[in-house]
Write a structure and sequence with these properties.
Layout: E1 3-7, H1 12-23, E2 27-32, E3 46-52, E4 57-58, H2 60-65, E5 68-71, H3 84-107, E6 114-120, H4 146-158, H5 160-163, E7 167-173, E8 175-177, H6 183-188, E9 195-199, E10 205-206, E11 208-210, H7 211-223, E12 229-233, E13 239-240, H8 241-253, E14 258-262, H9 264-271, H10 275-279, H11 287-291, H12 301-315
Length: 321
């Protein structure tokens, strides 16, 4: 039974990915600052090991015993306003994680076959304003904004893994849709009150993917030795903010919802600098991961939202709309 270390294993993707790996027969080791002793009883195939990014300490037995590392660690980009302190935390929670992992790999005998490292499509910045804009592919340079620079430093910080002779894969992830939290939960909140809240003019493109597909991409990267380097993790069919919002409202409420534009200036007042991200259009291409052999279960927004709502209704014992 192969063992997989997951950093950020208690987050949105980490929890779902841990469940998938266990279902596929893997042993999962979640690195955490806390022992999570009570959680150890929940699954015989999930264990916990301690680490502390600030103190740069780690349970070296986890490194020595594992076969793979999936690095998802990092402070949530959209969890708080972007103060100077928060920006520093967002950056260092990623780069210091890489430093700790690399140091542990260098100074401890190990059998790690691959490191699968999270990144984000924030690398690309906004779509260029031209008559026929092309979609962003993996060879594009990093944007010269906060998220672009953060993603660049994040990806560069894990590069020394290659010098150790370990296969390295970087997954630039789009907006993940999940019932367990994240952006989808926020999009749904106004719909409960019959309001389809369109952000700004609603024309900005969202490059998204279903939670099941992002977990399957990590599994695909782990299991296929030919997969290495950078891959975009987004569904084949990006949608506009307006299209996504209207589609959610349609599935949830049928025709009983009212479209309402939230003005850009109001978003800027509430979110500060972070409003740039919710108003930004980023059209990202997923052809590289598809050419590598990966197939999306939920390629369209209709299929993804239909599945998520069905599962949510099932959990709450509600009839599907």
């Amino acid at each position: 039974m192969a063992k997989v270390i997951i950093t950020g294993g208690t987050g949105l993707i980490g929890k779902a990915l841990s469940a998938l790996l266990v279902a596929k027969g893997y042993q999962v080791i979640i690195l955490s600052r806390r022992a999570f002793l009570k959680d150890r009883k929940k699954s015989p195939n999930i264990d916990y090991a301690q680490w502390d990014i600030e103190k740069q300490t780690i349970d070296t037995s986890a490194i020595r015993n594992a076969d793979y590392i999936i690095n998802l660690a990092g402070a949530g980009v959209a969890d708080e306003r972007w103060t100077k302190k928060r920006k520093k935390e967002i950056l260092e929670s990623r780069t210091k994680t890489s430093e700790l992992l690399i140091r542990a790999l260098k100074h401890n005998p190990n059998k790690i076959k691959a490191v699968i490292n999270s990144s984000a499509i924030g690398w690309y910045g906004a779509d260029p304003v031209v008559p026929n804009p092309k979609t962003f592919i993996e060879t594009e340079p990093a944007a010269a904004d906060f998220l672009g620079e953060t993603c660049r430093a994040w990806e560069e910080s894990i590069d020394p893994v290659k010098e150790l002779g370990i296969r390295l894969v970087k997954i630039r992830t789009g907006i993940v849709l999940s019932n367990a939290g994240g952006a989808f939960k926020e999009f749904r909140k106004p719909v409960k009150f019959g309001i389809a809240a369109i952000l700004g003019n609603g024309k900005q493109i969202i490059s998204w993917l279903h939670i099941d597909d992002i977990c399957r991409i990590y599994l695909f990267a782990l299991e296929n030795e030919s997969v290495h380097g950078i891959y975009n993790a987004v569904a084949p069919k990006p949608v506009s903010n307006k299209e996504l919002t209207i589609q959610i409202a349609k599935i949830e409420k049928g025709n009983f919802s009212v479209p309402l534009h939230v003005p850009s200036f109001l978003l800027k007042m509430v979110l500060g600098e972070m409003s740039v991200e919710v108003l930004k259009s980023t059209t990202v291409n997923c052809e590289k991961i598809r050419m590598a052999g990966f197939n999306f279960i939920f390629p369209s927004i209709e299929s993804a939202l239909g599945d998520l709502l069905k599962k949510d209704n099932s959990q709450n014992n509600l009839p599907a709309q």
